[in-house]
Amino acid sequence: MAAAPLILTLGEPAGVGAEIIAKAWTALSEDAPFAVIGDARLLERHGVPVREIGDLSDAATVFGRALPVLNHPAPAPIEAGRPDPRNAGVVADWIERAVALALSGEASGVVTAPIAKAPLYAAGFRFPGHTEFIAELTADAPYVGTRGPVMMLTARDLRACLVTIHVALDQVPELVTEERVARTARVVHETLRRDFGIARPRLALAALNPHAGEGGALGLQEITVLKPTAEALRAEGIDITDPLPADTLFHEEARAGYDAAICLYHDQALIPVKTLDFWGGVNATLGLPVIRTSPDHGTGFDIAGKGIARPDSLIAAIRLASEMAAKRAAS
Q1: How far is the C-alpha of 209 from the C-alpha of 261, rounded, in Å?
Q2: DSSP state of 241
Q3: Sheet strands side by side (includes 260-263)
Q4: Is the pLDDT reported for residue 80 higher than 70?
Q5: N or C: which end of the chain has fewer CB within 10 A?
Q6: For residue 29, which of 64, 68, 69, 70 has the smallest C-alpha distance?
Q7: Is 1's pLDDT higher than 80?
Q8: Which pLDDT tens digit goes with each residue over 98-123?
Q9: Tens digits of per-residue pLDDT, 268-286?
């Protein structure tokens, strides 16, 4: 495991973040340590011992007995299920502070609890989400390799990586360009080698159209964009398939043939990930100077405060971040 602790951000304080973090600490309190940036009083509501720390280096000595917290209180009262835009600024501050700790090496990686977009946007937040915000925060930091961000979703033995993310479906064809596909594939190839320890990564490229375009009868992108890009990537030494029909790419036998799938749009990746492991999927951001993972679910306003939120996805995100950090440190 990586020597430095992970740092977790509390996410939207009115959501399930504090609850699942408390449950994750209970499940992992004998594992590699992590600390939380957030409101210590909110975490105490969830029945776990909380210890405020002044420095991240104190996390290891505290972790087995209490949840270490770098206390950064929310300015407005927190009511479960009811986000308050007055707390939006501190949500962004928690993320910014966590990324700074990872960039300095004090934290081995960042694990982010879910955020709510609407209160952040109401407060002037200008990023679509965590992925783009963290990319901006790390833009000036040195990084060896092809820079992302690339979103990767994992579930069991599936790693699905996205060329486009949160865009309308009718915009996808014009955004699936040779440059975007090639950059995504390079980021994924390099990450699998450095952060997953896979010496010769095998990538599967999903087609955009049904039946991989049926020789042009159902669309031309496979002929004009995807196949030429795959050929160019193979010339660089990247093991990637020609575009394959997405409807046969994700069953068990198919998954055994590749280490990651390059998917072209949101649902092409998210549907198989959530079908394989709805509760335990993880979102990871690739191609950045810091390790970053997150549970693959939202804030859960409808169940916040009821004590029924499942921590499976957060636990998986913590474990994946720890594994990736350890591989990166050893590379």
Answers
A1: 16
A2: P
A3: 50-52, 67-71, 34-38, 6-9, 109-112, 292-295, 282-286, 150-155, 158-162, 260-263, 202-205, 239-240
A4: yes
A5: C
A6: 64
A7: no
A8: 999 999 999 999 999 999 999 999 88
A9: 999 999 999 999 999 999 9
Instruction: Return the half-sphere exposure (C-beta side, CA atoms, 13 A cut-off) of residue 153.
Output: 27
- Cross-strand partners of 82: 79
Tokens describing residue 8: 């977790």
pLDDT 10s digits, 137-185: 999 999 999 999 999 999 999 999 999 998 999 999 999 999 999 999 9
pTM score: 0.95
Q: How far apart are CA 252 and CA 247, in angstroms?
A: 12
For 273, the token pair is 């990930």
Per DSSP, helices labelled H in the chain are 17-28, 40-44, 59-62, 88-104, 117-122, 130-137, 172-175, 178-196, 221, 227-235, 252-255, 266-276, 312-330
Least confident of 27-36, 260-269, 305-314: 27-36
What is the reported pLDDT for 140? Answer: 96
Judge residue 153's burial from the number of C-beta atoms within 10 Å of its C-beta, 0-12 exposed, 13-18 middle, 19 or more buried.
Answer: buried
